Amino acid sequence: MSYLMSANVVCLFLAVSLLGCTDPSEIAKEQNAVQGDQEQGGEAPQKQVMPAAEQQNPAKKDGKKSIIGKTTAVVVNAKEALKNPDIKVVDGKIKGIDPFSQAGSAYVVMASKVSTLGMQQAIKHHKILNDKFPSYDEYMKMMKENRVEFAQLPPYKLYGYDAETGTIMVLQDNKKKAELYKEAGIPLD
Question: Is the pLDDT of residue 159 over 80?
Answer without folding.
Answer: yes
